[in-house]
Amino acid sequence: MCFRLLNANKIACLRVDAFQDLHNLNLLSLYDNKLQTIAKGTFASLRAIQTLHLAQNPFICDCHLKWLADYLQDNPIETSGARCTSPRRLANKRIGQIKSKKFRCSGNTQRHTQRDTQRHTQRDTHRDTHRDTHRETHRETHRDTHTETHTERHTETHTERHTQRDTQGHTETHT
User: Fold this and answer.
1) How far apart are CA 40 and CA 44, in angstroms?
2) pLDDT in tens, the chain (175 residues)
3) Could you say which DSSP state residue 35 is in?
4) Where is this region: Disordered (predicted)?
């Protein structure tokens, strides 16, 4: 059995490709995190999924989460009882038991959710760029340090050999 237990990690957002290479995953637990929404297609590549735990997340059940309700109705694999936190009219209702037409967005909600998604994407991009830059800087520093150290050792060894040879030659001449 292949599984991922990502419980209580304070995960606030998931990239849509977060699970793309986990085709054999049977159980995914995102229980007790900070997820308010999940992008459509996030679970698309999970062909072998049998159990999905999403409860104890503060889900905003608006038009952006409609797909999840449809998915859970078509695939009854969510066993932890994931519920809506808001809007108030859907609070504490199980996501998989709410009719699609109930998942609505007001203009305000739609703008807010899009802004949050953009912010998470920008933060992920910044983090990835920072990590890649740090990695490249580390490689360059290591390469430069290694080259300098190698050059210094080579120069010292070369100088020592010449000094020893000169000293030995000088000593032999005087004896």
Assistant:
1) 8
2) 899 999 999 999 999 999 999 999 999 999 999 999 999 999 999 999 999 999 999 999 999 999 999 999 999 999 999 999 999 999 999 999 999 999 999 876 554 545 555 555 555 545 554 455 444 544 554 455 444 444 455 445 554 554 454 445 444 434 3
3) -
4) 95-175
